[in-house]
Amino acid sequence: MIDKNTISESYNEKQREAIAFSGKHLLLLAGAGTGKTKTIVGRAEYLINQGYRPEKIQILTFTKRAASEIVERVKAGISDQDVRSLNGSTFHSWCNQLIIKFPNLFGAANYTVIDPDDQLSIMKMACGAASEDYGKTRLKPQQLLDLFSFARNTRINLTETLRKLLFKGKDDLQTTEDINALKPQVELLIKEYQSQKLRQQYLDYDDLLLVVANRLNKDAEAREILAKAYDHILIDEMQDTNPLQWYLLKPFENICHLFCVGDDAQSIYSFRGADFKNVHLFQERVANSEIKVLDKNYRSTQEILDLSNWLLETSPINYNKRLTASRGAGKQPTIVNVANQFEEANYIANHILESFSEGGNSFTDFLILSRSQYYTRPLQAVFLQKKIPYQTFGGRKFLEAAHIKDLVSVLRVINNPMDEIAWIRFFTFIHGIGAVRATSYMSEVMRIEPENVHGLDLTSIIPGKEGIKAKSYYDAAYQNRGNVKMAIKDLYKTMEFDLAMKYSKDWYEKRKGDFPVLEILSENYATLGEFISEGILDNSANVAGSNTLGGSKINTAELKDHVTISTVHSAKGLEADVCFVLNVSPKTYPSAYSLGNIEEVEEDRRVLYVALTRAKNDLIITRSKESINAYHHQTDKDEDDTSDSAYFLEGLPEHLALQTSPKSFTAPVTDAKKANTIDLDLGMDFS
Ligand SMILES: Nc1ncnc2c1ncn2[C@@H]1O[C@H](COP(=O)(O)OP(=O)(O)OP(=O)(O)O)[C@@H](O)[C@H]1O
């Protein structure tokens, strides 16, 4: 038995107590930079050293990146070969693995996981099939999907979902009547979507969680089976769990031990149904549980924490949190007022290049945080111009790129011949086949008896040269169906010419390089089904060098020195020596859309808090001069609007940050010392 005194000196007393926790369930409430991630790593190591089997310990995180970081760190700390079976994944990926691992238990192993694009196609089919009802709703298919997903994730009823998402929470008589009028059609369309999905054997992301959660909540035998498979579940970012994830975790209360870490002040996923107050109710909800607290910050200097603490203190919510820096004092944060985005981008690029050439910093020391990836385009352009290597986090994922989806569609129909969306994508890829013909060929495929559909000859369905082409693609993949990498390699060889034609505009610059990457990615998967479902959920391959991969979350350790540009939402758990937080301007923090809604304003405050607390030594905040001036102009006019929540940095005490503006790019002009009177003759000859 190892006691807490034998745990490494690199942990502080409170961390050690948490690591060696011997009760049933624990919530570790800890502020930013207080060592949550480090403590999870320590807990996993400790449990393995205690003799628990690594495969019976599951680490759950919100991003694949966080999961692999934790698992890699545990592996680095323990030399034993066995540690390879330690598993870290996102909630969705874990449920997917359970479905594959226990095909009988969950009964969904032959289903295909679909991404949001595919979901939209199915919802469109559902709306088409029930067009009369759909016409009455005046909702878009995407809105219907959002309603469905929100209701499932928050587990609130349709009436309240409609009220919240479509009627801004209003509960007057007219709204109630409007909701009642809309409900039957929305219900019908959602049910139609669900039955289309089931018929074609698809699971959307929410289904993955529900399939597992329903079975475990309702079936004692299922709980017994999983109790044999798991001893401990370690959950990161507990404040971001939504009611559906709580529903999934609930049965584990009696299956194994839960070790949860979270920070209420970093909860930024309420749009997915997360509620930071959940962590406050932990002990009421989880029997036999305890709470411990970490409050010493190891990441940042006290000046960075002072600014972050101030931001939370100006909130009407009591977070009861004041972080102190174990590292002591450092540099004052800077606020840079910029004239426009190009000035901002040039300022950042020059700052980085100066620090780099002065020899003190490498590119990885810089982290740039923005609310949206879109906002960083001018910055990326300037970085390209100035040859600053960078990597982006957040944004569209690798396997969602059109050229990749074309190739994967062929693999999908081989894996699941009921996959209608994939058949249509496959057929319409062939030059000369449009949506109408593709749909009719797809219907013909659907009429084939299930036992004859595997390895079918597509020339018997599609006449002429298009049929020959379709057959060549299908066969290239089908013949290699037992070997994912070979299937991709052969299929790509067969499709390459047509892919290059379809995407001729940017084939060489943007797309061609992705296919070798896809092959490398496939090495991680044993079967086509696994590749398709896991790959779609999580394409964080340990590979780099592809343009499209720029938008995905890839393992930074594999990349050379680079700056990281990330959305704040993807920056959870990141830290850097120098951190730029972009555009902390009025109407962005909080967002213009949040104003008037206290919950949304406070979520925006937490987003900014997450951003500020990523910096270790140097925090540089930019904001737009123009929007500050407009804001002050507006508040001068409208004296009633004195709320601090209208702009978070309003009222910032001077000593908390230094203000500056970038040096002007044009050389300063020297005027005459004496002011002359104007000399203006008519300037023309009238002769
Ligand atoms: N006991 C300790 N001694 C020295 N350094 C520590 C200690 N605990 C954590 N750290 C360091 O503090 C930094 C923050 O730790 P970590 O990333 O684990 O915090 P966190 O609580 O997960 O942060 P956040 O929630 O803000 O992402 C890391 O650089 C880590 O190595």
Report on the structure:
- Belongs to the helicase family. UvrD subfamily.
- GO terms for molecular function: 3'-5' DNA helicase activity; ATP binding; ATP hydrolysis activity; DNA binding.
- ATP binds at residues 30-37.
- It is an enzyme of class 5 (isomerase).
- With 687 residues, the protein is α/β, with parallel strands linked by helices.
- It folds into 4 domains: 13-108 and 208-294, P-loop containing nucleotide triphosphate hydrolases (Rossmann fold, 3-Layer(aba) Sandwich), CATH 3.40.50.300; 112-200; 325-395 and 554-660, Rossmann fold; 398-538, Orthogonal Bundle (PCRA, domain 4).
- Helix content is 47%, strand content 11%.
- It has a 7-stranded parallel beta sheet, with helices on both faces.
- Residues 538-559 have low confidence and may be disordered.
- The protein binds adenosine-5'-triphosphate.
- Adenosine-5'-triphosphate binds at residues 10-12, 15, 30, 32-38, 263, 266, 298-299, 573, 575, 613.
Q: How are the secondary structure elements laid out?
A:
Elements lengths: L12 H7 L5 E6 L5 H14 L7 E5 L2 H14 L9 E4 H11 L1 H4 L5 E2 L2 H14 L1 H7 L3 H14 L3 H9 L6 H27 L2 E2 L1 H14 L1 H10 L2 E4 L7 H7 L7 E6 L14 H4 L1 H4 L3 E6 L1 E2 L4 H12 L10 E2 L8 E5 L2 H17 L8 E5 L6 H9 L4 E4 L8 H14 L4 H10 L5 H13 L2 H4 L10 H15 L5 H19 L4 H5 L2 H9 L5 H10 L25 E5 L8 E6 L16 H15 L2 E10 H13 L20 E3 L27
Parallel strand pairs: 1-7, 1-8, 2-3, 2-6, 4-5, 6-7, 9-10, 11-16, 11-17, 12-14, 12-15, 13-14, 15-16
Helix pairs in contact: 1-2, 2-3, 4-11, 4-27, 6-8, 6-10, 7-10, 8-9, 9-10, 11-12, 11-13, 16-28, 17-18, 19-20, 19-24, 20-21, 23-24, 24-26
The structure holds adenosine-5'-triphosphate.
The site of adenosine-5'-triphosphate (ATP) has 19 residues, from α2.
